[in-house]
Fold this sequence. Notes:
The protein is α/β, with parallel strands linked by helices. It has ten helices and 16 strands. The chain has helices at 41-48, 105-124, 142-153, 165-173, 187-194, 210-217, 240-246, 255-259, 262-277, 294-302; strands spanning 2-6, 16-19, 29-39, 58-59, 63-68, 74-78, 88-92, 96-98, 133-136, 157-162, 178-181, 200-205, 219-227, 249-252, 288-289, 308-310. It starts with a strand and ends with a strand.
Amino acid sequence: MKAIQVERFGGPEVLQLAELAVPQPGEGEALIRVHRAGVNFADLSRREGVYGSRHLPQIMGVEVAGVRQDTGERVVALLLQGGGYAEYAAAPEHLVFGIPDRVSDEAAVALFEQGLTAYDVLFTMGHLKAGETVVVHAAAGGVGSLAVQLAKLHGARVIAVASSESKRALALGLGADAAIDAGSSGLTERILEANQNCKVNLVLEMVGGEVFDQSLAAVAPFGRLVVYGQASDIPNQVSTDDLMGGSKAVIGYWLWHTLEQRDQTERTLERLFSLNQQGKLQPVMGAVLPLHQAAEAHRQLGTRQPPESFF
C-alpha cells in the first residue's frame, strides 16, 4: 500500500511517500480501507517530534474515514499511534464509529475529534445555557467554527475571536453575533465592548499566556472558562483568590477522557451527525488533496489556512 512515512522529524519535507505492507489488525483492532485522512495542527507537532509518538519510522495521521474490511461498514476512527496517511489503517475497535448515510467522509472526520471537542467544551464542561454569552477563540478554526454554530443553535450569544478580517468574516457568516481581533493587548476591553460592556458567561480558551489572563478577566460571576489547548506553549497559574473573588470557574478538558466513555462518545457523535444531515452544522474544510501531496497539506495548514483532508 502507499503511505506517508516519516523517517526523521522536521519540516513538511520529511513527509515521504512510501510503499509499505498492509497492516495486520491485532486483537481488538479493525482494518480500514482509508478514504479520507484528516490533517490538523497537532499533526504538525507530531511531524516535528514535539507531540505524540516519537518512534521512527512512523506513518503520520490519527483521524481517518473509510470502510471496515471485515463488515463493509463506513466508519470514522482515531488511531492512537498514527497510521492514517495511508491506503489502509488498523484502528482500535473502541475508537471506531459508524458513519450514517448523507454524512460525507470529510464531514465525518471533521466532526470526530473537532466536533466532539466543540460539543464537550460548550456543554459537557462549559454547561452553556440558552441566552448566555460565550466567547470562542480561534473561531474560524476546526473546533472554533463548529463551536460557533453549536452555540447559536443552542440559543446563545456568540463573540468570535479571530486573527484576521477574513476569519472574523467567516465566523460572522457562521452565525457569530460579534467578531473581535485576537491580539492579547486590550483583549478584555474588546470582549466587554462586544458584550455591551458586560462580562461574559463562558470562554472557550486554547491559547494560554496573556490571552488566558485577559479572557479570565472578562468572565462574569458564576461564569466559566474552559481550557482545551495551549497554542502559545505558555502555561498559566490561577490563584484561589481569583476564583473566589470572582465566583468563577476554570475548567480543563482533554479529548481522551471523552473517548474513554464510549457510550457518551456515541451519543454525542449521533447528535453531531444528525445536525450535519439536517444541514444545520457544517465543518469548515479546505481543499481535498491526494496522498502524495501530504507535504503541501502541511505547508498550507502551517500558514493557518483551513483544515484539510486528503486521499
